[in-house]
Amino acid sequence: xxxxxKSCCYDCIVTKKPMxxxxxxxxxxxxxxxxxxxxxKDVGIRAIHPEKMESFADYLVNKLKxxxx
Length: 69
What we know:
The protein is about 55% helix and about 0% strand. It is built from three helices and no strands. The radius of gyration is 13 Å and the shape is globular.
């Protein structure tokens, strides 16, 4: 049984839709990236809003792609 209470994205589990960038495709600012990084280290993933986490994940993927070029 899946524990939905511990999920970061309730809607994604219930509707079984893949997580995607917000509809406007808004990128995070440098300040938001720093803030999210600090929050992840200090508090953990539960401190991050799912929409911000999706954008942050996109940032991390792009960062890895650039690093591996």
